[in-house]
Amino acid sequence: MGTGPLCPCPGSRETLSYVKSRARVPDRQDAGSESKGSRMEIPRNRIYLVRHGQTASNRDRIVMGKRDEPLSEEGIVQAQSLSTALGGLSWDAAFSSDLERAHHTARIVVGERDLEIALLPGLAEQDYGDWEGLSFEELRKRHPSDALTLLTDPALIRIPGGEGFDEFKDRVIGTYEEKIRTDERNRDVLIVAHGGAIRILVCYFLGLEYSRNFFKLWVSNGSLTVVDELMPGTALLKRLNWTADGAD
Asked: Quick check: is 20 in a domain?
């Protein structure tokens, strides 16, 4: 989905607390660009989760889902700013949703690095079926009960013509486990995807219940989230929703 007012108020008791730095770009130690010989002693894989830059639907608060839509001018600037901020980093592998807004963002972030970007359809956003193309305000007016449930426990609703929450969750997790996760350690991996897919992966890494925590995690366009996966089922959240311009 696009950015919009469906996310719970950050001040609500339901909202997960998190730390977000706006003071500086991630440095080599906290972003994970330390040399191979100076890595922390605990073996880990560092996962860089990047949400695609803004699109017109994000800007206009329209449900986008799996519709393919290009980056807006602002979205290109967001991706370029993030690329500049991460210029000192290197990755061992890069993966992207096959939707153009994510793939374009990935190409900008990777830049001139000699790194192939593997396109994975399983990282695409949830299919919102008949709701795609509606503004959030239209969705609230036409389906007030479903719109509320979507915020609090999206697994309880079935979107007409769309993808169930559990189907979406299983698709994203299955893609990570089958196509991305490796038994090798001390790898830095870039994943460029969508707000929904990144929320699912954060819940997966941290062992959070998926549906009731889904919209408690805010993921902005052009943002960076960093997770250290120490082993399957054990991970550290290093950074959540960091943006180069400090925007929410």
From this structure: no
